[in-house]
Amino acid sequence: MKLLTDKYFCRPVTSYNFEMTMNFTQSLRIRAPNPLEGGISRWNVKDRAIVDIANHGDEFGTVEVQAGNFGMFGTTKGCQIRVGREYKKGEQIFVSYGPKSASEYLLEYGFIPPSVIRNPLAELTFEIDKDDRFGDEKLDILEFDTYGGAMDPIQSFDVGGADGQPDPALVQFLRLCVLGGKDSFILESIFRKEVWDFMAQPMSEDNERLVVEAVIGKVSDTIDDMIEDDDQGAEVDVTDMTPEGLCKVLRGIERKALHMTADYMTREGEALDLKEYYQERRLKDLGLDSEWQEDNPDVGWGQSRAKGGKDLDW
After folding, report:
1. How far apart are CA 291 and CA 95, in angstroms?
2. What Å distances lie between residue 128 and 39, 50, 144, 165, CA to CA?
3. Considering only 36-40, 153-157, 205-209, which range has the smallest mean pLDDT?
């Protein structure tokens, strides 16, 4: 901004910075029903006096500011604060600023609440390889055959949490990203509408191993790119409110989340032989998972496939 001069603005740059800061920090993003989208909720940005000065609270029962209708006929739109306990006269009322990561709190509000330390999060980004042999087929699936509309080939996910388990959507996306080899048959047009649903469950042991390696590799690269701190193994200290101290706290939280994710995926990699993969699930669907018995030849046909029937599904 220092490179810009006043001739580009009707007011000085300092005024522009101040106004943008006020709008960014004192506006509320409120989830409200959208009748044009069949009642699906959407985010509305509101600027409301008094409500926007409520501080964030970590205590149990504190909720986000919500949309509401007021007036005799309920036609006046506004914001409402719901509390989970009784407050005394003159006591400060707190609201929740929402389920955000430490980086989001620091960027949007300039502080890091203690609650995010108990639930550390970091962000990892994955994408379809541009040199992937089956890249075009995968891009088509993301654009036309995923529920909820087209998906971008570059996706970011939060990792960490309470136990380090990745978001199932992350694993589903990665299974498609690394899909190849003998598993590529699933990309044939006959399966095109079902591929995304298939990716919600383990495809094959090789595919699942590639997913594990991709997550662990991305975690390792992200940690290597971080600024090293002298006391990386120490407990995160949220009392240092200087910019340097807050950035150090953020690195500590994200580093913890990344290590938790790597540990979880390492355990997943050690248990690949315990998972049920597409081939086994398909045999069960066709009723072909039972052992052949010579004295009972009907065993193994299953419920969906009868001997001599015409309902074969290959």
Report:
1. 61
2. 33, 46, 16, 22
3. 36-40
